[in-house]
């Protein structure tokens, strides 16, 4: 008698404790109350459970009609009532571990393509919705119900609604990680301006991988070394993000901050006077620790000592004027002339940061006349 009751045994014992019942009546009550929504109890197993309870003297059976072939009616014995009370208290108080198969599926989900995982979870959500509707219909058909019965229904529907919310959140996260992040696509306001038309934009604080230098970018070896380190670390971060976090993205375009003691050096293309900060923006989930590891990898395995000069920090420009220039870098002068001496004065704008260029084309593979470059100038009003 010390062996604890299974959920099925406790359920059946409770039903015959309410009042004596035969097996078919038990099936009717179980079906009407929706008990199978929260307890595994098949029709054929009802008699098996009753037999086990009777062997333990927790229930007794009689045939009220006195015939050998009549239906057996089962009732709880005094010992059964004591065990029922003890088991009920324990069932209410104990927290038992659940073993949902969906967690096993998630643990093995890397073997499936991401879209299949999302589709399977959506199928599950549809089934959850069907079950929720069935429980609510069962309850509506029985109203009004006792408080403890209402609590049983509420427990089931609350769990199902919580699962719907969990599935919605999980699929949204999985869809986000399945889709390659691309700042050019996601922030078209910043990376897709109109050709030849100045526009004002508010540039937010963005995380950048940066490296500083000076001199003519066409001839200075330090410039080439800087770009090699910048790209090596940026791609190392991309691969680490995909492998460790399951988040892939398109490496952002190369950008450059350019300054000189005399701003006219850009219009006249006096490149030896230029100071530059070359940079590539990084996704918001990239951390300083990931950058440190990628820098170390580039410096040692790829033998790029310049990588140690890289820094990872946020950069905010705020109000800026930008325009898309199509053509050679050396043909930017007239555009900058109009920006500095026509558009900015006409709109009461002053310089508020270094000249900024964003290189949308690969100069190694693109004819100079087809190069697409965003020219951006941080400004202040008044």
Automatic annotation (TrEMBL):
Family annotation (InterPro entries): GyrI-like (IPR029442), Reg_factor_effector_dom_sf (IPR011256), Tscrpt_reg_PadR_N (IPR005149), WH-like_DNA-bd_sf (IPR036388), WH_DNA-bd_sf (IPR036390)
GyrI-like small molecule binding domain: residues covered: 199-375
Domain Transcription regulator PadR N-terminal stretches: 12-86
Protein origin, superkingdom: Bacteria
Database matches in PANTHER family: TRANSCRIPTION REGULATOR, PADR-LIKE FAMILY, TRANSCRIPTIONAL REGULATOR YQJI
Name of protein: PadR family transcriptional regulator
Source organism: Micromonospora solifontis
Organism lineage: Bacteria, Bacillati, Actinomycetota, Actinomycetes, Micromonosporales
